Amino acid sequence: MMDKLKFENHIASVFDEELEEIRNDLMAMGGQVEQQLTDAVQAICEADSQLAEQVIQRDHRVDEMELEIDEACVLVIARRQPAASDLRLVVAVTRAVADLERIGDEAKKIAKHALELTESGPSPMGYSEVRHLAQSVSQILRNALDSFARFDADTALATMQEDKKIDMEYKTALRELVTYMMEDPRSISRVINILWVVRSLERIGDHAKNLCEQVVFVVKGKDIRHRNGQ
């Protein structure tokens, strides 16, 4: 708690406009990829090819945002030569935008599978697994972004633990989908698309966990990537 208060006081006293703009841009990018995920899953579950096309077309904007934020971070380092927590924030943002861009890529993949699935007509097979996993993944992403917005390391650490739940739900979905294929070989082609969708959702959960790691890095100055039991 004291670490958080000290960091917030620092932010309030010395956070300049360029750093704050970078953080705001990161939140805007987070909102964009969150919407991409929501729309991609909706396109799958509602067999909405038009919405899937929109997700695919909007992916270029996510890529542009990554480049813009990266450039802003480079300029801040060159001009301001930030130290201590300011530098940690800039480094964390550059790592976070890479994860957000990859989330955007996974949403685009889901949208592409939505297009393939709509060609074979609507079917409930596998969609309950997609809906269930997507709900959990969307929540962990929302919590990760919220912890970044509020510099809340405690929420970030708690959210990281939720990734274990995502992994269990992913394995459960895989078992269900394999069962569908065994029971009805005619469904194999369709279910394979669903398998790729749930794989993308699981990866989005991993990227959300990475965002939480960056929050801890910014607030506490600890790099907890690749540490077991965190």
TrEMBL record:
Keywords associated with the record: Cytoplasm, Phosphate transport, Transport
Gene3D superfamilies xrefs: Phosphate transport system protein phou homolog 2, domain 2
Keyword Coiled coil (UniProt): no
NCBIfam families from the UniProt entry: phoU_full (TIGR02135)
Main location, first listed in the record: cytoplasm
Free-text function comment from the UniProt entry: Plays a role in the regulation of phosphate uptake.
Domain PhoU: 27-112, 130-215
Cellular component annotations (GO), alphabetically ordered: cytoplasm
UniProt name for this protein: Phosphate-specific transport system accessory protein PhoU
An annotated GO BP: phosphate ion transport
Source species, domain of life: Bacteria
Family: Belongs to the PhoU family.
Coiled coil: none
Subunit structure as annotated in this protein's UniProt entry: Homodimer.
Localization in the cell: Cytoplasm
Signal sequence, start to end: none
